[in-house]
Amino acid sequence: MTQLFDTYGKEYRDVVQASIDFSGLSYEFVTVAKADIMREVIAARLGPEAKPSALDVGCGIGVLHRYIRDSFARLCAVDVSTACLEQAARANSGVEYRAYTGAELPFATGEFDFAYAICVLHHVPPADWLGFMREMARVIRPGGVLCIIEHNPLNPLTQLSVRRCEFDRDAVLLPAWRTAGLMVQAGLKMVDSRYFLLMPSAAAPARAIERGLARLPFGAQYIAYGTV
Ligand SMILES: C[S@@+](CC[C@H](N)C(=O)[O-])C[C@H]1O[C@@H](n2cnc3c(N)ncnc32)[C@H](O)[C@@H]1O
Fold first, then answer.
1. Contact 113/140 with Cβ under 8 angstroms?
2. Which atom of ligand 1 lies nearest, measured to the CA of 168?
3. pTM
4. What are the backbone dihedrals phi and psi of residue 141, each rounded to the nearest 5 degrees, phi first?
5. From CA 90, how far away is CA 185, in angstroms rounded?
């Protein structure tokens, strides 16, 4: 079956960049911020020296992988778009890419320490959200961590970028409380979330301000996470 993102394999990066051009941010800046905040969550939940085995669900063209591959002992990645996976595999080495249908993940129960999905859930039909979360939780070992990064629908600039993004036509945005609620329903413990991408700078003072405001729904995106 042809997937929406098969069409965007080649232009994926340009389409995303065009949708956020008005903010002055680069796609690279946003991607690095996501890698950094995931590392913070891993350090907080799995220990500062942790180098977990990880699964990226809905990896797209694997833009994040060059920034985060070295933080993991093993990195596997799946997507429903084979065109995206082919591009990801050409761009990155040391990542195990696999296609799947969007239903059952092709991995054993408890195979990973950490699994994450970035900007994927808003493309999944709402009726499938809980099943998607439960399936991610299934492949994480007890004590491991599930992490979701999503657009913050309470941020008007995020809403604008979603309206400008061609492949977000089908998007149903979830507020952080909804994602956290799904995690609780999926049986995750110590569920928490925080907002980020508030400041257009990665300098230490900007990051400190962002951390101070992380509980307020100002950031363009949020990270929600829970322990299996
Ligand atoms: C906006 S892109 C995000 C890609 C990547 N996570 C990133 O942040 O660059 C959404 C991705 O989710 C994938 N996708 C959509 N539904 C999915 C599902 N049910 N399971 C896994 N991936 C899915 C799409 O094919 C697409 O590659």
1. yes
2. 1
3. 0.93
4. -70, 155
5. 37
71-91 tens-digit pLDDT: 999 999 999 999 999 999 999
List the Cα angle 226/104/143 in 5-degree steps: 25
Report CA(99)–ligand 1 centroid distance (Å): 12
* Residue 3 dihedral angles phi and psi, to the nearest 5°: -100, 155
The token duo for 101 is: 């249908």
Closest atom of ligand 1 to CA, residue 117: 6
Query: In angstroms, what is the span from residue 29 Cα to ligand 1's centroid?
Result: 19
Which residues partner with 30 through β-bridges? none
Q: How confident is the model at residue 1 (pLDDT cuts 50, 70, 90)?
A: very low
CA of 209 to the centre of ligand 1 (A): 30
Name the residue with tokens 């939940």.
Answer: 45
Yes or no: say if 186 and 137 are a contact pair by the CB < 8 Å rule: yes
Instruction: Record the tokens describing residue 184, joined without a space.
Output: 């609780």
Ordered domains of the chain (ranges, CATH) = 4-227 (3.40.50.150)
